[in-house]
Amino acid sequence: MSIAILLLLLFIGVIMIIEGLYLVVFGKNIKLNSRVNRRLALLEQGKGHEEVLNTLRKERAQHAKSKKVPLFSILGNKAAQANIAFSPKALVLIMIGVTIASFLIIFIATSMSPLIIGFISIGMGVGGVFLWLNNKAKARLALFEEQLPDAVELIVRSLRVGHPFSSAINVVAQEMSDPIGTEFGILSDESTYGRDLTAALEDLADRIDIQDLRFLTVAVGIQAQSGGNLAEVLDGLGKVIRSRFKLFRRVKAITSEAKFSGYFLSAFPGVALLAILMIKPNYYDDVMETPVFIPACIIVGTMMLINIFVMRSMVDIKV
Q1: Which of 157, 241, 310, 317 has the most neighbouring CB atoms within 10 Å?
Q2: Signed CA dihedral, 158, 160, 165, 166: sign only
């Protein structure tokens, strides 16, 4: 009982330490809710457009190589989506440091065998970093998706007053905060230095991996090849994106009660078990030595895992 609580608190502490270290090292540069996006902040420091572009592109591409390594490909994708300022080497060092620290803490505080402690510590290091990256990526993608309809409307207004598409992209980069402000600022700078804007949009869509952004990329690519009124096309696309976003929010609100019920029913057996062991630690002593105790625990654990997946599938409504 005490060991399970220790491991849970240690895992929570791991995530908090990683977040604290990230904030200490990079501070305000990585806040998503800043009114001034990071590209404009770098320009205000007196750096030139080319220097800022090279800095941002280096940060954006630093996790691309890690995607080629099978073990770190998932971490690389999450780090790229979250635009984590930590380099791949830094993430590996954090994993190693957390693993070593977890091993020492568990070894001192418990009497488990070093082999089991080693596996648990590796899970703490790798799992803690992955969960932290996953939360960062989800937050950034959700904010990007929320900003996208406003960005499309801003592009449409710029096109209708006579600005070219590259200038419309620059307007978004100047007027909107992160993450979309910096990302579109990179597109604008790349276009200024000669890169094809459609290809740059495709790279952004592949890295961010949001369906609405892919719609925007396809619309711009088709217009570049066949011509047409891009403002009208993007105006319709913006209305569709905003309608889809409203529908997602409505579905989320409708299914929130069912999701809470699913989370509660999934967590209740574990919470009840912990409560029983806290109130009466010797409650299961009479049956622990019976031959069916371990098989029963395995069956119950398996059923609980199946219950979690079934509950998630029931409330995961595809729109």
Answers
A1: 241
A2: negative
> At CB < 8 A and 24+ separation, what contacts does 6-11 make?
6/106, 6/109, 6/110, 7/106, 7/120, 10/102, 10/105, 10/106, 10/124, 11/124, 11/127, 11/128
Pick the residue with more confidence: 65 or 177?
177
CB 136 within 8 A of CB 84: yes
Q: What is the pLDDT of residue 68?
A: 66
Q: At what angle do helices 114-160 and 165-175 cross, to 10 degrees?
A: 120
pLDDT tens by residue, 140-158: 998 998 899 999 999 999 9
pLDDT digits (tens, 9 = 90+) for 89-139: 888 889 999 999 999 998 888 888 888 889 889 988 988 998 899 999 998
Of residues 285 and 175, more confidently modeled? 175
Model pLDDT, residue 104: 92
Continuous H helices in the chain: 2-26, 38-44, 49-61, 73-82, 88-109, 114-160, 165-175, 180-192, 197-208, 211-226, 230-279, 285-288, 293-315
Question: Identity (one letter) of the amino acid at 157?
Answer: R
Instruction: Choose among 147, 174, 164, 146: nearest CA to 223.
Output: 164
Which residue ranges form the domains of the chain, and what is each CATH number? 145-244 (1.20.81), 245-319 (no CATH)
User: Looking at the chain, how many residues does it have?
Assistant: 319
Q: Which of 131, 127, 125, 106 is nearest to 117 (CA)?
A: 106
Structure tokens that stand for 201 in this block: 């949009």
Burial status of residue 94 (CB atoms within 10 A of its CB: 0-12, 13-18, 19 or more)? buried
Of 16, 21, 38, 20, the residue nearest 29 (C-alpha): 38
